[in-house]
Specification:
Layout lengths: L2 H11 L4 H8 L3 H11 L16 H6 L2 E3 L5 E3 L10 E4 L2 E4 H10 L7 E4 L12 E4 L1 H8 L8
Antiparallel strand pairs: 1-2, 3-4, 5-6
Amino acid sequence: MSNLEKYCAEQYSSGRTQRELAQELGISKSGVSRLVKRGIPFLDAPVLTRDPARPLIDRLMMRMRETSDGCWQWTGYVRNSGYAQFSYRGTNHLVHRLMYQMENGPIPDGLVIDHICRNRLCIRPEHLRAVTQSENVRCGQRWSCVAA
């Protein structure tokens, strides 16, 4: 095993994404994936990011970092639309919707989830609220929108 394989496996198991490692090393994500897989058997600690038995909330929290303004910034996969995405049980989910539902229950019919902080990558439940689509658009046209 090379030092690069061990480095990639260690970084990936600590929560860094394959995309971040690929950008850092100047290689493709599939190249990083191969390096991670080769390096995993040599780690002292288990790789936590792909453990399906690990609770969903723990798996989500491994992919975020708190910013100076209090947002929980998603560091995992981001859709072209700018929203955080996570694959769970074979289905892709928007992370802010998952976080809202884990904290507040189902999203009421006819409502969407608004980021009060205006940061699409924020997954902090306190920064999310259920609003109508028109309210979401209205608030999006201003820089900040205080929860009612």
